Amino acid sequence: MTQQPERDAQGFIVDLNTWTPTLAIEIASEEGIALTDDHWEVITLLRNFYMEFSISPAMRILVKIVKEALGEDKGNSIYLLTLFPQSPAKLASKISGLPKPTNCL
Which of 28, 35, 48, 79 has the smallest number of CB atoms closer than 10 Å to its CB? Predict the structure, then answer.
């Protein structure tokens, strides 16, 4: 059995380098989410954004990133809420192995 990466009290991984797609599936499952291609599109965008800017985007920025990359149909808060219920920026960052966005509780 492989050792689980260390996580903080809210379930975010502590060392971002320990993230793997398998871990993403596990975290998503803990949150009651079965990852689809639509989820992976957002996860990939988030990870690329983080690699470029070293921050996890808050909701408004996340919507803008998704809209620019995937179009109007997916670049809105309603769509993101269907994928990542309650707090899309926070939950998507958690599943993506990124830190919690700074303005998320």
Answer: 48
